Structures
1.
Amino acid sequence: MNSEGPLISLCMIVKNEEKNISRCLKSVTHYVDEILILDTGSMDKTPALAQQLGAEVYYGTWENDFSKARNESIKHARGEWILFLDADEEIPEETGRILRGLAQEQEVEAYTFSILNFTTKDKDSQKQIGINLRMFKNNPLYTFEGKVHEQIKSSILKANSVAKIVHSGLTIIHYGYCTDNINRKEKNLRNIRMLEEAVTENPMDDFSHYNLAVSYYVSGQLEMAKKHFQPAKQLVSPKAKYLPALFRNFTVCLFDLVHYEEALNLLNEGLSYYPDYPDLYYLKGQIFTALKLYPYAQQCFENCLKFTNINPEYISTCGVENFLSLEYLADIHAYRQNWPQALEYQVLAVSTGAKSYTSAQRLALFAGKIYKNNSNMYSFLQENLPHLRKQEMLNILFITGCYDLVLQELEEMGEKNPKEFLLGAKAQMHLKDWAGAQRYLQLIPNENTDYQEAQVLGSICRYLQSMDASPWPLITDFSDFLQVPNDYLNLIYQLMLYDSERTLTFNKNNLEAANFALLCSTVGKIAFNSGNLDLAKNLFLETFSFNYRSPDIYRMLGEILFHSGEKKEGLYLIRQAAYKEPNNPENYISLLKHFVDYFTEQLRGILNIYPHLSLAMHHLCALTTFRANLGGKEEFS
């Protein structure tokens, strides 16, 4: 405690926050002079935990008004300054150390902080950053306003029109938007109820419409979100501080609704106001990528890379000015099969912040297109992915087909865990060393969660090892595994994944022609639905060679051919499916989807030659929206 009285008072309102309160208070307790908590009706251990950590806890009744609760919470503050947090937030150490220095500035009346919003608790997950006033001088004239998303800035400026409000440059971490936050849904529904009341009371309040739209968006109700973004946009003042966020978040909603033309128009308007807002270029790039207008997208992402600093007043997704845009540029070059350029951009992305496992996978897959020598590729990965754990690097080597290196690394490791044994077994299976795979599988203990999968893989190994000599089928070896026909067919599919040629030959030699064609058809559908299109295509063509040509095989093979570049042949087969089975709407939906895909591709070609042809852009956006609204399962990206 400051000898002349508290310097900084932390004031909070809480209810049922036992999962969060300790993390929050432990992060800040050494940097403030008193902690004052207003509990509005907790039924859990929140008050007791707060008291254990030195907080003074007061009790009040929740009256569906955040400002009323905040104003009650700051009444007890004795500090010269008030800092306020939510229980699902924490103060990083580098922020805490500077708080007292901020409080020594006599000319400053209040500070804003950057609020870093995690989307999951994984440190490598996507994060957004915004700005919020969180620390101000203790003055009875300064009070919060607004039932939801309460603000104090306007009150400070009403009391002191020349008040100096400064951005601290410091960060507060917020976990409330995490998709794995168990309280997220409940709090969002509460906010929607309160904001609906506010909009009913004052339908011309643009900020309430905006906050309600955001709450609906977070809850996944996109049409309702759009319904309230629209009046917010119509009513908002051009001088409103949240206008940049309105352009951004309304665009995100339209993007998710696949209303691309509206989104592009909104972005163009937003950029006329805020040409220094990289998120707007980034969103534009995302839309052009979705429309497969890659030259347009490339220009947008390159614009993002020109920014070295982002205005702290703008809500922004962390990384739009570097690694996120770089990854999109890598994808664009990968689409063009320009692998050296794709790899170069992905290396830059990883070096500037793309530290997730998915980013590492992408880098490895691009490197695999260039490095034909596994050892050289491994050296490259070690140099560029030093942050990966050993298990992650083994997985990366496995998915890029470096099975020999996986086994080499496992041999050199000391103690190994069951997941590493399982990975070693799979590597041996891809190298068709069935006995070696079984040796690894035998090391996985019965009580381990991977034991069941190990048993299945062991069965596959024994089957493939003895395929040439054994009669069909080997029921004695697979009695536990082959309980129902689907299990049996899935087994055949698994066998084909590891040795399709021998499995196919074996079945062809041991089954009657009609049964073999039926087997190929059924397992081909499993492969198709699993995204293994090359195997599905081969199996469907086998059925054709035996004159087994069902309508669904025509349709699926047609879709595969269409998306592999044989568009006319693909459309012909899908049309044949509709002709052979006229009462099945799935055939007509597929035909319609692929005709739309064909015409959108023609429009993209026109736009690449005539980029300013607005009518072509209008038709492309309209057809893309129509295509998305057709619904049904999507097999292709």
Note: DSSP finds 28 helices and nine strands in the chain.
2.
Amino acid sequence: MTQSWFKNYPDNVAHQIDLHACNSMLDLFNQSVEKFQDKIAFSNFGAELSFNDVDRLSNHFAAYLQSKLNINKGDRIALMSPNMLSFPVAMWGIIKVGGVQVNVNPLYTAKELQHQLVDAQVDTIIIFSPSTKVLADIVENTQIKNIVVIELDDLVGKGLPSTPVDERLSQFVPFLQALKQGQRLALNIVDLSPQDLLFLQYTGGTTGLSKGAMLSHGNIIANVLQYKEFAKDKIEYGCEIVITAIPMYHIFALTANALCYFFFGAKNILVTNPRDMTSFVKVWQANKATFFTGVNTLFNGLLHTPGFDKADFSSLKLTIGGGAAVQSAVAKKWQQVTGNKLNEGYGLSETSPILTLNFGDRSNNDGLYIAGIGTAVPSTDISIRNDEGNVVEQGQAGELCAKGPQIMLGYWENEQATSEAMTEDGYFKTGDIALLDEYGFFHIVDRKKDMIIVSGFNVYPNEIEAEIANMPGILESACIGVDDVKTGEAVKVFAVKESDEQGQGLTEQAVIDFCRQGLAGYKVPKNIVFIDEIPKSSVGKILRRELK
């Protein structure tokens, strides 16, 4: 099949990838360990793990999971941790026993955590110690029976302060103790195939409840190989230095940083708390990074932190922005400061995630760089369709629908949602409005859904409105996203008060404080506006566009 975007491919980039190169992610892992051995794979707080270290330690953890916790192929295991050395060790341990990793945001509230653990039917969780309080609040409402606790200093050994495990969780095993026990145990190799489930990557939905995108070994292998082929001119095996600040529980950093660049033999410098911009800048100053991924707010934060412009960017070859639209003003300043173009990518949790990439050397016939999300990666077909499901003419806007080996198997135990997300001819409906221009470049025009993207994280209005509906004194509310300099978008809520004394006494701050109890920080509304009536259609549907 010849597509209009193929003309933008470099001559040495294939239009299709070979999907028969390996059976599972473990094949890629073993090849990388054998090739790079004592090279540094991960660094955090100045401590380092080689490729051999990751292999050895993950074997210990896998043996512990298999023998002590009786984890079998297909069992779901939650990993709730920020970027730390323990993350890749735990991840590869899970993969080696054929487990399905359920990636969990360590900043989740009790309500959000409970939904995810119950929905995924998880009975084992590997959790960062500061998050244990949230787990303790809801653990009795879940199937959790095995708790392994990661501490900040694990595998670092520099005396970093540790948050005590919540005293209500009396039955748990420290991560280092699990490794020590596993060291003395045998590991039985598990047969894995491309169709076997690898990750449950939870993503929000219009119902307000997150759904688990089922990503198989084949899905992730495909996306790794697609990126490897598309970016081949920018990869030097065994020589890349990567700074990973986006959390690895997010699909963007999980695939691009933790997996792709592991297979390229990169040294991956993990940033545990990127919100500490002063320390983050010191990481940049101490390392000559070659590859960096981020979201718009992260780039903007670095650019406004003193000392960042003093870092040595001479080795920086590739910067990719995703998770949300990269603002042109930020991209322009990034290039001014670093000398490196900020390239945009596009994808979703359901697509492993990479669908398109826009590299700085792609240009039209006039030699001008075209902004936007670029071109589809190899073995990926993109179809722009109208509301009736018909393909629109090139240049016209419609819903971006995608087909390729990186598209999820479906939503976990949710056939209806899976069916609604797919076209009859097998394309995944992204919910984003896009167009393909005359030069063969894709552009996102708008979001079909009312999703709000705060610092790269998806926020769904229905979830916010459902939470506020529980607040005494509120009659109804409607939620929209508004532009925000710091977070790209922010949540704004229009609320109608009850006519009684309790309602009339409500303040904007009271609504915000209420939301903080049940929602993760990035979902909490930044602005509350009290109005007399929410605009609705004739059938009672909230008209968010009028509020905007």
Note: The chain has a mean pLDDT of 92.
